[in-house]
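Now for my pick.
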Amino acid sequence: MGKYTAMPKLLSAVPTFLVNDVGNTADWYRSQLGFEAAYFPRNPPYVYASLMRDEIEIMLLRLEGHKKPEVVRAGGVWDAYIRMEGVRQFYEEVRKKIAMKSELTKRPYGDSEFEIVDPNGYVLVFGELEKNSES
């Protein structure tokens, strides 16, 4: 009998955002969205941060003077789509702190979603496939 080898397994994809100021951006994600941050190096100016909340990770990379180019497309442009559970409760928490790019909406493809924009112009969509619910 041959040796058993497990197939490689992909675990996640992590959006990586270029930002001018890693520390300020990470502070925003912590205070507004409840993420935790791990920095490198340990003291500012930081060149990297890993932002984590539950099973979600977003990486920040410092590029001095960077400004995200504005991209326009019919239907919008998303930089990260975050699938979640409890989207309605999260929406109610977040909308008290952040201006919404789009309100919570039940889409024709079944997801209930809302969009926000971070301080660097990255668009994050939070969505949940909800069965039998209306927005």
